[in-house]
Amino acid sequence: MAAVRPALFLYVETETPIRVWTGPKPYSLTADPVDVDGGPYLNLALSSFPVLDRLVDDQAGEYDLTLSGIDPEVIGLLDIPADISGARAHLGQMLFDANWQPTGAVDWLTDLDAESVSWSLVQEEDGHSASVTLKLGSASTDRQSARLTNWSPIEQAILSPGDLAFEFVPSISTGTTRQYPA
């Protein structure tokens, strides 16, 4: 079986669009319904985005994407668009083979709102390093809390078909406990 490498793409609709992806080197995408002009995506070489499923499933009110370990001198070279706050951001996934050749087009998973960009400087034993954080929010939440959920087997089956993690929830009521393992 051939190896499959998933990669994430982030496109932020600012006057000068922000295009980044999680692959090993810069990558150009052709125009599509989300990125209507197409263009080069800067590589971040990240292996994963933790708790991404919660953001895509609209269960996270907001999400911070942080890139750490940047040389502080590089921060001055970065040009963050003034119109980042409130800009639409799109998160997509593309699958690649073992040689980083695409197996299909980008599947744009969710639309988000870019809320802010922040910088932090950290003193380390061997000098300073910086971090940049892009705060994204799900357009379907009110930024105060995630979507309310009942944690029911039906709701879980919609999010993750075949997952039986919540099958005993209906038998639990306030003031009762279940012994584990049952």
Model description:
The structure is a single chain. With 182 residues, the chain is mostly beta strands. Strands 3-4-2-1-6-7-8-5 form an 8-stranded mixed beta sheet. Helices cover 9% and strands 37% of the residues. It is extended, with a radius of gyration of 20 Å. It is built from 3 helices and 8 strands.
Summed up, what is this model?
By secondary structure, the protein is mainly beta. It has helices spanning 52-56, 72-75, 153-159, and strands at 5-12, 18-21, 27-29, 39-43, 62-70, 88-96, 107-124, 127-138. The chain has an 8-stranded mixed sheet.
Tell me the distance between the termini.
38 Å
Largest beta-sheet characterization: 8 strands, mixed
Strand content: 35-45%
Question: Which H/E pattern describes the elements?
Answer: EEEEHEHEEEH
Please provide the count of β strands.
8
The Rg value, from CA coordinates, equals 20 Å
Attribute tags:
eight-stranded mixed beta sheet; 182 residues; mainly beta
